[in-house]
Design brief:
binds 2-deoxy-6-O-sulfo-2-(sulfoamino)-alpha-D-glucopyranose, alpha/beta, single chain, about 30% helix, binds calcium ion, eight-stranded mixed sheet, Arylsulfatase, C-terminal domain, globular, four-stranded antiparallel sheet
Length: about 550
């Protein structure tokens, strides 16, 4: 029966005209940003909604489906991208932390889409090192990329493009949409640098939010008193680690000499400033100069200084997001102009979540909700119900399988996720996963978040910081902000024992045999004091 069905399908495909083939194989536009927290998207969170930070992304949500329980497997940039390329966890695709290089020779979904008849392209941040494979056209930013007048690596060499990175990447994608072969379906990945640190908005957005106060997250002054020790030994606090000059571009010198902070291993803020033309730098200084002057006059300390830093940070972050949101609008407008909107699945996502002052932090890495959650919004005309919201537990592990399924291409058995197509169709598959698996590997490294793995179910979360043998358990229903580690609570031991078993089952299922040994106490002390050295991650 199966054979007959396959033969019939094959026969019908052979008879399709190019335009009919297009209808059965929809185009895929994947818009992917760097560090865009769901909480900074109007369609996700009421927190910033009054500011209307993302009208175009919200429109996409209104036209399609919002995944409310969308998670990454490893909350850091390169690894998230490697999971998406391969449909496999980090320990399987070999890209466990940003210091690794991606093996482009392995199986990736764009290569499989090419085999299925798709033309593929990638523009923007790759962060996987090496020349991308599986793309007919590409232009990627070296490393983290720069916001102003960035370099790109292309199949024919390096180029420097004047302008603002988000706009340039969008221009490249629009050019591709206009010039590609109209007789083949396409899969286009538009991967912005924004809103990644150091948060540098486009010149036209420098005054956005000047007259408003960004609402502070409820946990801005969290002191992590009831968490396990790792939360108190990190380096991602707005208060103690966010640098006025390096992160917030505050002029600390009489003539704005802008010396890079000595504390930082990475000098991207400095590199970005140096790239600006005199005109760009002037517009930049004109915008920040008066604000810096007012800041110096106010001579703030303690919580007041944290509040000020949070405002400067959140505003610049949201200004970068405004650029991304405009890109989404321009790309969708282009699809419409070209008559492609009805036959293109548009997906918006970002490599992980982000702390926008939540728990007093910036950056990501933790298995805590703010960084574990990824935005995922998909509009597939005629398939996704407009304005719908899905609550199944989904991961970036599922994207490769989903893209292949959308294209009608077979999903290789060694991919570890599941196609989201049934969910996009509004179905409720009875065998859908009941828990997700997470594993973060980059320690010691920038921001000092220890390695950990864990499980999250609809209600609970169990985390093991294995180098230190510290455990955390949260009941997300009772404690959604994860303020109180209930691991030692006698009343929770039964639930915890069950979760531990499920966690081991997941480790077996996904064949994670990476080293999770507990380190000796002396080594732990050295790591905590920051003395322990390892090749720093890029
Ligand atoms: C850089 C950033 C860090 C960030 C890592 C990883 N410093 O080192 O703040 O955590 O990248 O980010 S910066 O000065 O260059 O911005 S990731 O998104 O690439 O994983
Ligand atoms: Ca990122």
């Amino acid at each position: 029966m199966k054979l007959i069905r396959s033969l019939l399908l094959l026969a019908s495909c052979a008879l399709l005209t190019p335009s009919q083939a297009r209808d059965t194989q929809p185009n895929i536009l994947f818009i992917f940003t760097d560090d865009h927290a769901p909480s900074a998207i109007g369609a996700y969170d009421a927190w910033l909604r009054a500011l209307n930070p993302t009208p175009n992304i919200d429109r996409l949500a209104a036209d399609g489906m919002v995944f409310e329980n969308s998670f990454c497997t490893n909350a850091i940039c390169g690894p998230s991208r490697a999971v998406i390329q391969t449909g496999k966890h980090s320990h399987k695709n070999g890209f466990m932390n940003n210091g690794n290089s991606f093996d482009w020779n392995q199986q990736t979904f764009p290569k499989l889409l090419q085999k299925a008849g798709y033309q593929t392209a990638l523009y923007g941040k790759s962060h996987l090192q090496g020349k991308p494979q599986g793309f007919d056209d590409w232009a990627v930013l070296p490393g983290q990329g720069l916001y102003y007048n960035p370099d790109f690596i292309t199949p024919t060499g390096k180029e420097t493009v004047p302008g603002y990175c988000t706009d340039i990447v969008t221009d490249k994608a629009i050019k591709y949409l206009k010039e590609r072969d109209p007789n083949k379906p396409f899969m286009l990945m538009v991967q912005h640098k924004a809103p990644h640190r150091n948060w540098m908005p486009a010149l036209r957005h420098l005054h956005l939010y000047d007259d408003v106060t960004i609402p502070e997250p409820a946990t801005l002054f969290d002191k992590w008193e009831d968490n396990a020790p790792p939360a108190r030994h990190q380096e991602l606090e707005v208060d103690r680690h966010m640098d006025l000059n390096f992160d917030l571009f505050v002029d600390l010198t009489p003539d704005f000499a802008f010396e890079p902070s000595q504390k930082r291993q990475d000098r991207s803020a400095y590199a970005n400033m140096q790239r600006m033309t005199p005109e760009q730098l002037k517009a930049w200084r004109d915008a920040y100069g008066p604000k810096d002057e007012a800041f110096h006059k106010a001579s703030l300390h303690g919580d007041d200084l944290v509040r000020w830093k949070f405002q400067r940070y959140a505003k610049n972050y949201l200004r970068c997001i405004k650029g991304v949101d405009e890109s989404v609008g321009r790309l969708r407008e282009t699809l419409k102009e070209l008559g492609l909107d009805e036959n293109t699945v548009v997906i918006y996502s970002s490599d992980q979540g982000f702390f926008v002052g939540h728990h007093g932090w910036y950056d990501k890495r933790w298995m805590y909700e703010e960084s574990l959650k990824m935005p995922l919004i998909a509009a597939w005309p005629g398939v996704t119900k407009p304005g719908s919201r899905d609550t199944h537990l989904v991961q970036n592990l599922d994207y490769a399988e989903t893209f292949l399924d959308i294209a009608g291409a077979p999903i290789p058995a060694d991919m570890q996720g599941a196609s989201l197509v049934p969910l996009l169709k509004g179905q409720n598959p009875p065998d859908w996963r009941k828990s997700i698996y997470y594993h973060y590997y980059e320690y010691p490294s920038v921001h000092m978040v220890p390695r950990h793995y864990g499980i999250r179910t609809e209600r609970y979360k169990l985390i093991h910081f294995y180098q230190f043998d510290e455990w955390e358990f949260y009941d997300l229903k009772e404690d959604p902000d994860e303020l109180t580690n209930r691991y030692p609570d006698p009343a929770e031991q039964e639930v915890i024992a069950d979760l531990k078993k499920q966690l081991e089952d997941l480790r077996t299922q996904y064949q994670d045999d990476s080293d999770v040994s507990v380190k000796p106490k002396a080594w732990q002390e050295e790591m905590r004091s920051g003395k322990w050295e390892e090749k720093p991650a890029r």
